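Ligand: glycinamide ribonucleotide. Inputs:
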Amino acid sequence: MSLPVAVFASGSGSNLQAILDHHATLDAPPWRVQLVISDQEDARALRRAHRSGIRSRFLPVAGRSSGDVAAETLDILSSADIGFIALAGYLRLIPADVVEAFRERMVNIHPALLPAFGGKGMYGMRVHEAVLASGARLTGPTVHFVDEEYDRGPIVAQWPVSVRAGDDPHALAARVLRVEHLLYPRVVDHLSRALARGRRPTPFSPPGTAFLAKSQAGADVARSISAGFTGD
Ligand code: GAR
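Predicted complex:
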């Protein structure tokens, strides 16, 4: 039996796609993406799910009480027997009852090195604008367990990406997103495997040389590392 995973996404869903593409390269993984949920009816992520034959669901959040959203979310998740949740560009706060039900079984990816440059309103291009305005030389994605606040739960993985002279927010966002696509599927795999085996998930360490030698994906990661995590 494989662990049913849900992905929540509000927008393009390129991280969802990276998870699906990575899953397709794995040999009998003990997990699968079973359900995609979006708060936006026209999210591209829902179309990606449909194209891959994955059940998808529009779950409206705007204008509803948190309790109401929580009850519907928990109902959908339990009827699909979901054991793990990956937020992939999902821009709504997860209601407290859902956080409680999925404590250490729900992660989010954020496009900066938390705890810096996170919190309410910090998403998408705003994050990269703030990084550039601060003069930071390093940025990069963070994966963290989800708790009751935006971008605050325990950190599971981070990969540094250099900020270059002359970067604008779009160039920086694109470089970080390429590394997100390498990092997030591997973290989802790592955590889902632990949960599928009934173990408590541990933080993800960046892949070692043995892994890197094994596959094309590994070779891509190796290139990214040797380029100084530049995401090229
Ligand atoms: C990603 O860069 C993700 O890190 C970010 O939204 C983008 C979604 O892209 N998330 C946040 O800013 C959350 N605070 P995608 O829809 O193409 O995966």
